[in-house]
Amino acid sequence: MAVWTGAGLFALTVAMMAAILVIRLRFLGLERRRQRFLAVWRPLFTQALYQLPANAPHVRGGERFLFLLLFNHFHSLVKGEEEKERLNAFAVQEGLPPFAMATVHRGNLPMRIAAAQALGFLKETSAFEALEALARVESTALSLAAASAVTHVNPPRAMRELMPMLTARPDWPPSACERMLLDAGQAAASGPLKEAVMAAGEDTAPTLLRYLHTAAEETAAECARFWLTRARSPETLSAALQSLKDPRLRPMAREYLAHPVWHVRTQAVKALGRIGDQGDAPYLIRALTDKEWWVRYRAARTLAEAPFVDHAAFTAIREAQTDRYAREALDRAAAETGK
Asked: FRET pair for 276, CA 20 to 30 Å: which of 4, 10, 15, 324?
């Protein structure tokens, strides 16, 4: 019995080693194939940035996904629009759009994500509906890739379709949503974002207000004013104050320096640091005696960094303080900023 058990274990070990060897050889073969592909196609992609290659070989069936990945890689590195257009022309010449369209429907998850990205880079208008549908699937990675792609294909239409998802998809990172809005551009994003902000409830308004920096200045100011006159929740007020960039709204920021919630007061101080002028110095000086450390600290840092408070004025403010906590805040700000 022991002999048969030992023989069985030996046979199993040999079979496992053989399987590992086969996998290893297959991997090495795939890597050699990838390197051969890159040796041929990487110089051609580099040439395509400046001039469409005239004698490029035909992309073989087994290499089409490698071609798609290399296209995505080059597109993500290039900044100039002319270079991107030449890359797109090269990809069209080599038959990438039909392959990407087919792959986005029936590939595995990583392949579908890469195909969605490629269709966005190509600005493939025929893919809009398919990509818009994929932006609604459960997979976070695939839905984000598709949403980003439609933003490149048709920015105005994409903004109208995607805006409700900015609050309906908590799995989408805010940085990714911000990137989509920036890619779409102010002309496409401002109108839909304004409509969404104005129609939002206080449960979703803070999320949308934090994207106002991607909109046109007048749109951002109108939305901030709208919520600063209506909001009741501290979260919404903080987000609205955080979005303030228009100096005409300074009186509204000053008003919230007396709000009972400390983080609203903190955002009011920071807003005055962005849009304030010399007339706001007395308000900031009063904030130095706030009962909350963060408010005092932000007021001191704002005074230290404000263009309307020079070194002499800052020194005079420090020397005039009789409150111990105000002096501590100013001393810290002076040490951190060198003022």
From this structure: 324
Boundary residue ending a domain (153, 183, 211): 153
Domain that holds residue 137: 30-53+62-153
Helix segments in the chain, DSSP class H: 2-48, 64-77, 81-93, 96-106, 109-122, 128-134, 140-153, 155-162, 165-168, 174-184, 186-199, 205-209, 217-228, 234-242, 250-255, 262-275, 281-287, 293-305, 311-320, 324-337
* pLDDT over threshold 80, residue 226: yes
Residue 326 lies in a domain: yes
pTM over 0.85: no
What pLDDT is stored for residue 21 in this prediction? 37
Per the structure, the count of domains in the chain is 2
Per-residue model confidence (pLDDT) at position 1 = 53
pLDDT digits (tens, 9 = 90+) for 274-304: 999 999 999 999 999 999 999 999 999 999 9
pLDDT at 22 over 50: no
pLDDT at 231: 93
Domain end residue (candidates: 107, 134, 153): 153
Distances (CA, A) of 263 to 26, 241, 266, 273: 59, 10, 5, 15
